[in-house]
Amino acid sequence: MQFVELRSDTLTRPTEEMRQIIARAEVGDDVYGEDPSINQLEKLAAEIMGKEAALFVPSGTMANQIAAMVHTSPGDEIITEVTSHIFLYEAGGLARLAGVQTHVLKGERGMFSPDELEGAIRGENIHFPRTTLVAFENTHNRAGGRVFSPEELAPHLEICKRAGIATHLDGARIFNAAVALELTPDIIAQDFDSLSFCLSKGLGAPVGSLLCGSAEFIREARRTRKILGGGMRQAGILASAGLFALDGAEERLARDHQLARVLGGAIEKMENFRLEFPVESNIIVSRYLGDKPIQEIVALLKEKGLLVNPFGPASIRLVTHQDVTQDEVFRAAEIMGSI
Ligand code: TLP
User: Fold this and answer.
1) How much is the pLDDT for 182?
2) Residue 141 CB less than 6 A away from ligand 1
3) What is the per-residue pLDDT across 129-185, written as a single tens digit (0 to 9) for each?
4) Pocket probe mutation, ligand 1, options 7, 139, 200, 201, max atoms within 8 Å of Cβ
């Protein structure tokens, strides 16, 4: 059966053109700093994000974990929202790798208030852990691809700055945020000390993420990447796909958002499903209103040709991406409407 694949934008496959680019990539040993494709990608990423330097890493998870390891010392505390990827989906890496404890704040649609943040920051006291990092996410995966404007986050970042606390942005889908806000990514990134973004989500590359920040931060991050075994050799074959993926990304993502709005509009009219969040980018979280367990619903959708991920006790997540056509989105809506 030909499935409509909406489980994640990580499921895109390299196009024929991308495969040609990969085949011709110039490479060298990146641990020696001699891979021209990696060097080009890191330079471009830093430029796009308006930071001094960037580091190519295998995954978004590794980028976030390296950021936490560099910004903190073991025993410190990091603050993040309770449904953030770094807290929820990174297999406890913050505790295991950075050796920090996590202070989670319960947000409203993925974000806590400036007052809650201020109240969570530890004062100087011999009993307390030190708060050394606050981690944000934009777009916010669990909050249905929610997009935060720079104005919305400005008060939070101002508080961190005043308190001398580092800030990291998990910008796995920062280009989606940029397209939705009609801003360039550097504007979204500008007040964060570091940010990560992924090539292997909506951008359509098979592997890779970039961590961006000051030259000093990236020097330390490079060393930390080595500790984690993420120093890759002729990884230019991956970077070349990344360079290709960045070219013209905005138009492709705008199309993904359009398709998500179409599907969101159809879901709004259904009896058995409703939207859990307004559709702001390429992620839809939809609540199932019937009485069957959600795993059963996911299996039933699959039987009818639609692949989605369960997302919590009664919801599913649907993600549009470059390998989904408009017709497939119509089919997805039809399948959902039929159960
Ligand atoms: N998210 C994946 C799953 O892990 C949930 C997905 O399918 O969406 N930050 C954010 C906001 C992410 O959504 C993800 C991946 C990551 C980081 C981690 O990236 P990878 O998978 O490259 O380690």
Assistant:
1) 98
2) yes
3) 999 999 999 999 999 999 999 999 999 999 999 999 999 999 999 999 999 999 999
4) 201
Mutational test site, ligand 1, from 10, 83, 97, 140, max ligand atoms within 8 Å of CB: 10
Superfamily for domain range 4-11+249-337: Aspartate Aminotransferase, domain 1 (3.90.1150.10)
pLDDT of residue 1: 87
Q: Is 330 in the pocket of ligand 1 (CB under 6 A)?
A: no
Confidence at residue 261, expressed as pLDDT on a 0 to 100 scale: 98
Distance of CA 27 to the CA centre of its chain: 27
Q: Which residues in the chain show pLDDT less than 70?
A: none
Alpha-carbon distance 327 to 330, whole Å? 5
From the CA of 297, how far away is ligand 1's center (Å)?
23
CATH 3.40.640.10 fits domain 16-246? yes
- Full DSSP string of 29-62: -GGGT--HHHHHHHHHHHHHHT-SEEEEES-HHH
The boundaries of every CATH 3.90.1150.10 domain in the chain are 4-11+249-337
